């Protein structure tokens, strides 16, 4: 997993909003752009970064490309974050 790429992708508020949108169902780029006051090119740029970070995937249906959330990457990130904190570090327990 490319953690730096993933964290950079979710650091942007617009990309986080796109991810929130895709939680419910898949959308085409045009449908996503319609939810924001941004140009199609700007939305495409954000989608490209999310796709490069494997946070979303795409599939073609007729003449449209639909984007959907890739939940497995979030599970990996959460597992990693969890390992940093609660119960995941015996060294931490020794200092308390």
UniProtKB/TrEMBL annotation:
The keyword Nucleotide-binding does not apply. GO terms for molecular function: DNA binding; DNA-binding transcription factor activity. Gene3D superfamilies: Winged helix-like DNA-binding domain superfamily/Winged helix DNA-binding domain. Residues 1-89 form the HTH arsR-type domain. Keywords: DNA-binding, Transcription, Transcription regulation. NCBIfam families: HTH_metalloreg, repress_SdpR. This is HTH arsR-type domain-containing protein. It comes from Secundilactobacillus odoratitofui DSM 19909 = JCM 15043.
């Amino acid at each position: 997993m490319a953690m730096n790429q993933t964290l950079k992708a979710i650091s942007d508020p617009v990309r986080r909003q796109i991810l929130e949108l895709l939680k419910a169902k898949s959308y085409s780029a045009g449908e996503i752009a319609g939810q924001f006051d941004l140009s199609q090119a700007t939305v495409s740029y954000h989608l490209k970064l999310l796709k490069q970070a494997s946070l979303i995937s795409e599939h073609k249906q007729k003449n449209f490309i639909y984007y959907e959330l890739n939940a497995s990457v979030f599970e990996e990130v959460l597992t990693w974050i969890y390992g940093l904190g609660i119960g995941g570090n015996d060294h931490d327990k020794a200092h308390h």
